[in-house]
UniProtKB/TrEMBL annotation:
It comes from Streptomyces fodineus. Residues 27-132 form the DyP dimeric alpha+beta barrel domain. It holds the Pfam family DyP_N. GO terms for cellular component: cytosol. GO terms for molecular function: heme binding; metal ion binding; peroxidase activity. Keywords: Iron, Metal-binding, Oxidoreductase, Peroxidase. InterPro entries: Dimeric_a/b-barrel, DyP_N, Dyp_peroxidase. Transmembrane segments: none annotated. Belongs to the DyP-type peroxidase family. This is Peroxidase. The lineage of its organism: Bacteria, Bacillati, Actinomycetota, Actinomycetes, Kitasatosporales.
Length: 444
């Protein structure tokens, strides 16, 4: 890996949504557009280029309200980006998420044929995301962006997803969410684990050296530099099934919470098992300076406290040498819930659609998002657990039970059902602010 260096990122050209953490609490909206007329599609991008703030604008009068603009491969094609330029983008991006379903283990009930239309189709061309601390300011941000696409008959809004993060910061299964993020060299934004060395900026922003010294940038440089790839995924959560699983496999309420912690690797307060092995510690979970300050090989090498197959250990093995060079697979991950919460204690779901909208940011789709999804989430070989899957978002093995190490005898629970099912998603490119203007000014 490359040694630490001083990197100057061109923050005033990078969309704020690439590097800046989201506010707490917040509301968000995803708007998907189809471009039917190339000229009007370019006009959409030209107008939209005025909406995003930059990563340097952290003291904007809009405070924690901002807009991000992304395009898919099919969107770049619809805008008339030259073939030579299209071919310089990552090949996973050029295929799109639906075509990568087998590698991502989006099969069976999770396969693209069951996705929510139009996700996963060639009609998804541009994605505008608005973020604000609350719904009123979110609607204000959407209203400000509305002139970018109104009265453009050749650029049509075809899908919308509203989502939010509660003041509790918890998702539908009850876990504190968004507690871990990497530090990026040159960003000026600290990471969540003070023991982790900042990652090279080229792992997240195109046009800069990455962890192995390479520089990835689609051509021409005015289009690719200071951009990034973004993955968004909609996952439906079966909260009632999750609650029934905990009840049916436990010896009581305290044991339910222990099982929930063993599945996630954290108590639902956010406190990690590595630092609170016996009982929940809400004060620890609420402390951003302490709740991530642990290392697996240093604090729990054998996984007796935090099982090797638990969700957070799979998603970010930190210093675990068995998982290979972990720094090559780190991503910026953000999530927001959608749909109404299932009331506390309810064990039957009456059909309401609820779940998570995930966003992943990185410069290497293959070795970041796809590797983590296919290998760490859906293959246990890295963790000495055979072919077991991640217990939360993996492609559930309905025959194998979930096992947690324990002395003198390990504990084996019932097979895990699918608690989270893919309902759609896409691979996107987040252009720089100058690239958005370049796309808007394209000519045949």
């Amino acid at each position: 890996m490359s040694a630490p260096t001083h990197v100057t990122l061109e923050l005033d050209d990078i969309q704020r949504g690439v590097l800046s953490p989201r506010p707490t609490p917040y509301a968000a909206t995803y708007l998907v557009f189809r471009i039917d007329d190339r000229t009007q599609g370019r006009e959409l991008l030209r107008r939209a280029s005025a909406a995003p703030t930059s990563a340097a604008d952290t003291s904007s009068p809009l405070e924690d309200t901002w807009v991000s603009v992304a395009v898919t491969y099919w969107g770049l094609q619809a805008l008339g980006v030259p073939r030579s330029s299209l071919e310089s983008f990552a090949w996973e991006f050029r295929q799109g998420m639906a075509a990568r379903a087998r590698a991502l283990r989006d099969e069976g009930d999770r396969s693209p044929q069951h996705w929510e239309a139009p996700l996963g189709t060639r009609d998804v061309h541009a994605v505008i995301t608005a973020i604000a601390p609350d719904p009123p300011r979110l609607e204000g941000a959407i209203d400000r962006g509305r002139p970018a696409y109104e009265r453009l008959s050749g650029a049509t809004a075809i899908w919308r997803q509203d989502c939010y993060a509660l003041p509790t910061e918890k998702e539908h299964f009850g876990y504190l969410d968004g507690v871990s993020h990497p530090a990026v060299e040159g960003s000026g934004i600290p990471g969540s684990n003070e023991l982790e060395v900042p990652l090279k900026s080229g792992e997240f922003v195109l046009g800069y050296p990455d962890e192995i010294g390479g520089v990835e940038v689609p051509q021409p440089a005015v289009l690719g530099r200071n951009g990034s790839y973004a993955v968004f995924r909609k996952l439906r959560q079966d909260v009632a099934a999750f609650r029934r699983y905990l009840r049916d496999n436990s010896g009581g309420p305290e044991d339910e919470e222990l099982i929930a912690a063993k599945i996630m690797g954290r108590w639902r307060s956010g406190a990690p098992l590595a630092l609170a092995p016996q009982h929940d510690d809400p004060a620890l979970g609420a402390d951003p300076h302490r709740r991530n300050t642990f290392l697996y090989e240093q604090d729990d090498l054998k996984g007796f406290t935090m099982p090797g197959s638990c969700h957070i250990r799979r998603a970010n093995p930190c210093d675990a040498s068995v998982a290979g060079e972990v720094r090559l697979h780190r991503m910026i991950r953000r999530g927001a819930v959608y749909g109404p919460p299932l009331p506390e204690g309810v064990l039957e779901d009456h059909g309401a659609d609820r779940g998570l909208m995930f966003a992943f940011i990185g410069a290497h789709l293959g070795r970041q998002f796809e590797f983590v999804q296919s290998q760490w989430m859906n293959d246990g070989v890295f963790f000495g657990a055979g072919d077991t899957k991640d217990p939360v978002v993996g492609a559930a093995d309905r025959e194998a039970g979930y096992t947690t190490p324990r002395r003198p005898v390990r504990r084996r629970l019932a097979p895990l059902p699918w608690f989270a099912v893919t309902r759609g998603g896409e691979y996107c490119f987040l252009p720089s602010l100058s690239a958005l203007r370049w796309l808007g000014d394209l000519h045949d």
